[in-house]
Amino acid sequence: MQFLKSLYIHNTFFWYIAILAGCFILSFWIPLLYPITWILTWVLLGLFLFDIYLLYSHSRGVVAERNLPQKLSNSDLNPIPIIYRSYYPFKTYISLIDELPQQFQKRDFEHRTNLLKDQKKEFEYLVRPVERGEYVFGNLNVYASTPLKIIKRRFVFQKDQKVPVYPSIIQMQQYDFLAISNKLTLFGLKKIRRIGHTQEFEQIKEYVAGDDIRTVNWKATAKQNQLMVNQYQDEKSQPIYSIIDTGRVMKMPFNGLKLLDYAINSTLAFSNVALKRNDKTGLVAFSKNIETFVPAVQKITHLNTILEQLYNINTAFTDSDFGLLYARVKRKITHRSLLLLYTNFEHISALKRQLPFLLAMAKKHVLVVIFFENTELEALISSDAEDLQTIYHKTIAEKFSLEKRLMQKELQQHGIQTILTKPEQLTINTINKYLEIKARGLL
């Protein structure tokens, strides 16, 4: 049974059969062709048995290995390398089929190549998951055939490998690397002009050309008989909370990714940047209940805690309770903090229902409400109208787009910071707002 399960007929063999069948038909009119066709039939049978011998005389034949990472990164292109090698003493034709997880819905994966004796090759393909969770890679199937291409032998490797898909680790590392190399402007991060000084005093030092004369410490100058200035540093260890709305409004997908996952990816990348700048970061996820609450801590290892919590967050199909969120924030977050609230409002009436709770949180904390542009509506608005129905659609789309801007103005009039962003630009705009607030000393 093991032999029969691994034995497959090559497509070329059916061409040989078709040619022989054609010769038998032609022999009805050309009798001389009939014995020749029978000879070719026996030759093909002999080659069939010989091909079986060539492929099965080597127990090892071909080996292959799929090198999966420990974690896959959600919404990113993740490379999956496969290394394979032939031990046959002849040129081997390879057809490699990897059974991808059912989440990708891809059933036509195939890679074809050929290998010489003892030759080793590596093949790499990319996968882009759009859901967090556990993904199961099935069999790695390798079909080997000789230059005769009559039969194929199947080799099966690495059955049912499991790998978790976490929030975008690649995106987080990307921004981390750019921050270290001081190239964040390549991705759209802005240089923010500092306004005034923070309140955290560092030291008194001698005046050098270029120092701000407004920082001259006259008492120290009189004692030292030379100009001395106060030196300040950015305030550190300030608590910052990412608050993620997991209600039904965050279920909306753009480019295959839910708004919730955009918010989760942004939270991870932003938390890493904030921790590197010595601030405390925490996490809150809520809908009808407070599903996750991680107190703000200033440890780089705290990022692992945030990552694990983000991995387990799911979207609910209910309206979120902002009153419950306000009560938890009031009770648990006692120090003035920066609150980044990821949510979405499609109608201004929805915003006005929640506005009293947002204003209550903004009295004690610096609240930034982050909500999303509907990029599909924006594409419809920018398209040309060719008939009456398209004009109606564009008019309705413009109404919804205007409401988004009115909601932003409404929040700003009440002193609440806002970010109205496209889903793809969420991380950049969030980090920019964080740098702006720090530079202006609002926290």
From TrEMBL:
Keywords: Membrane, Transmembrane, Transmembrane helix. The chain crosses the membrane at residues 12-30, 36-56. The keyword Transmembrane applies. InterPro entries: DUF58. Pfam families: DUF58. Residues 204-353 form the DUF58 domain. Signal peptide: none annotated. This is DUF58 domain-containing protein. It comes from Maribacter arenosus. The lineage of its organism: Bacteria, Pseudomonadati, Bacteroidota, Flavobacteriia, Flavobacteriales.
